[in-house]
Design a protein that fits this description.
This protein is α+β, with helices and mostly antiparallel strands. It is 41% helix and 20% strand.
């Protein structure tokens, strides 16, 4: 949006009135300073990433006139020969002219890309930000400023849109991202070109930016001009749209935080997404994506999870780092922990730590000693210990002959379902057997084999202490 339309002042072109120039110059400087105050309310030392192009050289000049303590960092990626060296010389000369500390690093980007097995652009980005972070730490800078502007944000919107995305991919370039600030996002490239002309800011043109074989260049050089035929203020309109989408995202984030407080329950190292929170919820897959994208789940995963939440328990879906399993209560999320085949052999008294968490304490008691009661302790004959006790996880085909069922068999799968355990909890239940027969599902049910007959002078107690999650 042109803020001077009501004044009848031309600001995009070379036909400026003197009063219009004065108003517009003051407006650009004020807008930059206001943006910095928003990003840096307490001030700070700022490192500027300056390539030598129009955008970053204008940013350098604006910062130099703003009164902030700054430094300049320039990367020479050695990709364009003399052109790259010319960029470095331009940035160095301007920094010296303005009295700004100058830092430069030369990279053999092609060699590093071959070593890493990555593309040139990704390698250059990695090298650039690794070095920037080193400078921030070593030289005591508080923030890193990059020169992304409104056109860049609109291009990012269009690039993600063409690839297919959700709301997060339509938010453009963030203005504040950790220690990175982008104070030019409220400026169009046309405004920066005007500023460079008005204040005679030197800059270099990267010839690779004119090659439309790169997707972003194709959008900038080919697609955006078509949109500007339809709407001459397409970039400004796109910037306003991105701003409204960011406001929408903030509103959705507020709603999601309220939803999380009610339906996303922490259980130690896992989380329960309660089933009632997903039922009759419009856009449930979108909410799940906002909730779970940080755990490596994508939109396809979330579409599947909505269906899983409606069906029977036991289904499992995994990302590269986490897994989710459905239960009667909802969806249970936890970090992938690998196998939990915790085979342990018990042949003597002592404390046995289980790899999935918790422990078993095996003790000898006199027949007349006070005995604890409860599901987490069992008493067996010493002969059971002499024969050896194996502790393992559940397996297909397991069954138990529970006490009180007159020797009838009950499948372990059915028993665990009766206790409404989710898959993770089922995998963590210790199964105790001796001579190939299960006699205890720890913490849940005791079986007939090896139970006490009476008259023993000594008995063996086995106490299960589950892992206590904070």
């Amino acid at each position: 949006m042109n803020p001077f339309n009501n004044l009848g002042v031309k600001t995009y072109g070379l036909g400026y009135s003197r009063s219009g120039l004065r108003i517009y110059n003051n407006y650009m400087v004020a807008k930059f300073r206001n943006q910095l105050e928003n990003y840096l309310p307490h001030g700070g030392k700022v490192l500027l990433a300056v390539s030598g192009g129009l955008d970053s050289m204008v940013m350098l000049r604006m910062f130099a006139d703003s009164g902030y303590e700054i430094g300049v960092a320039h990367c020479n990626f050695s990709l364009r020969g003399e052109e790259s060296d010319g960029d470095a010389e331009c940035v160095k000369n301007e920094s010296n002219k303005l009295g700004v500390p100058y830092f430069q690093k030369v990279f053999d980007t092609k060699k590093e890309a071959e070593r890493l097995g990555e593309g040139i652009q990704l390698t250059a980005r990695t090298l650039r930000y690794d070095w920037f972070n080193e400078l921030l730490e070593k030289e005591g800078f508080d923030f890193l400023a990059t020169a992304h502007h409104m056109n860049d944000s609109v291009e990012t919107f269009l690039y993600n849109f063409t690839k297919g995305t959700g709301l997060p991919g339509l938010l453009g370039v963030p203005g504040l991202q950790g220690k990175i600030i982008r104070p030019l996002l409220n400026y169009t490239r046309a405004e920066l070109e005007y500023y460079a002309t008005r204040y005679q800011v030197p800059f270099r043109t990267d010839s690779s930016n004119l090659d439309d074989k790169y997707s972003r260049n194709a959008i900038r050089l080919n697609a955006i001009p078509i949109f500007e035929r339809i709407n001459k203020s397409f970039i400004e309109s796109g910037g306003r749209t991105i701003g409204r989408l960011n406001d929408t995202a903030d509103l959705i984030s507020h709603f999601i935080n309220d939803w999380k407080n009610r339906f996303f329950i922490s259980r130690g190292e896992s989380f329960l997404i309660k089933k009632e929170g997903l039922q009759k919820l419009p856009g449930g897959n979108i909410l799940l994506y906002q909730l779970l994208s940080g755990y490596g789940f994508n939109y396809s995963h979330c579409d599947d999870l909505i269906e899983v939440a409606k069906g029977i328990s036991g289904k499992r879906i995994s990302s590269s780092t986490h897994e989710i399993v459905s239960s009667n209560e909802g969806l249970v999320l936890r970090k992938i922990q690998g196998t939990q085949d915790f085979n342990i052999e018990i042949k003597e008294v002592g404390t046995y730590h289980l790899t999935q968490g918790g422990q078993l304490i095996v003790s000898v008691l006199g027949d007349c000693d006070n005995r604890k009661k409860g599901r987490n302790i069992i008493y067996v004959s010493p002969r059971t210990l002499d024969s050896g006790i194996m502790v393992r996880k559940r397996a297909d085909g397991d069954f138990l002959r529970p006490l009180g069922m007159k020797g009838a068999k009950k499948k372990l799968k059915k028993l665990l379902n009766d206790f409404k355990l989710n898959q993770f909890e089922k995998d963590a239940v210790p199964i105790l057997e001796s001579q190939g027969k299960i006699f205890w599902v720890a913490g849940l049910r005791q079986g007939i084999p090896f139970s006490l007959k009476g008259g023993e002078e000594k008995i063996i107690s086995i106490e299960y202490i589950p892992e206590v999650n904070p």
